[in-house]
Amino acid sequence: MSETNPIFRLHQGLLREGPGSDETTLRTLGETGVSGPVRMADMGCGPGAASLVALRALPEAQVTAVDLHAPYLQTLEQRAHAAGLADRLETRVADMGDAGFEEGSLDLILCESALYFLGIEEGLRRWRPLLAPGGRIAFSDAIWIVKERPEEAEIFWMEYPAMTNRAGVREKVARAGFRTVADYVQPKSDWDNYLGPLGARAEALRPDADETLRQVLEGAEQEVALFRRWGSAYAYGVFVVEPA
Ligand SMILES: C[S@@+](CC[C@H](N)C(=O)[O-])C[C@H]1O[C@@H](n2cnc3c(N)ncnc32)[C@H](O)[C@@H]1O
């Protein structure tokens, strides 16, 4: 997609493309128990916030960041250079479902708010052969956290029909032949880190937006407003899993 694509115009310059924080990534890395010269892939890395956290937290790690959208990877490379971390980073413009990793070559696969593109079960099955012995996968995904789902929120999330709750994700993990080692619900502030800059960017673009861009901006504004109204009904959860 070109950079004049209205979706990418909206998202240009954002440092996170999903609910998250450095603290959450650090907690997740802690839950995985990895240390030392870890070979890690950040699948669907976007502009690479998680990769940067991992490079800092794991000073011997080699990180390969994978995304379909090349400009995100350029942003990540620039940020890694500026932080003196680029020598342990490789970026790969590729489909994360088939990104060219050798079998058994990864100690950790991290995937923050991107696994829904492949589907949890499909993604885990595809990644399993890539794991070295003892290797783990950590991913985050949107989950329902109430029994009675508000109708407005349910309509919005129809764009992700496979969305389930925490127990439902654990079941999917088990069906894919994995065991959940740890899981937790991300704090609400992780949404502010994503929706705050997204809402501000939408507002800034609005005065000069043509009709196509306006529709994209409305989608973003709807996402922000929905979380304000119904943010107690859904959350992002992190799941650390390993082959059963
Ligand atoms: C919601 S964003 C999350 C980005 C990043 N992990 C973060 O939390 O900021 C999802 C990312 O997945 C990427 N993506 C979607 N499908 C993909 C695929 N099949 N292979 C690689 N990347 C993909 C998108 O380009 C986007 O950067």
From TrEMBL:
Superkingdom of origin organism: Bacteria
Gene Ontology annotations of biological process type: methylation
Name the record gives this protein: Class I SAM-dependent methyltransferase
Cited InterPro entries: Methyltransf_25 (IPR041698), SAM-dependent_MTases_sf (IPR029063)
Ranges of residues in domain Methyltransferase: 42-135
Keywords: Methyltransferase, Transferase
An example molecular function term from Gene Ontology annotations: methyltransferase activity
Keyword Lyase: no
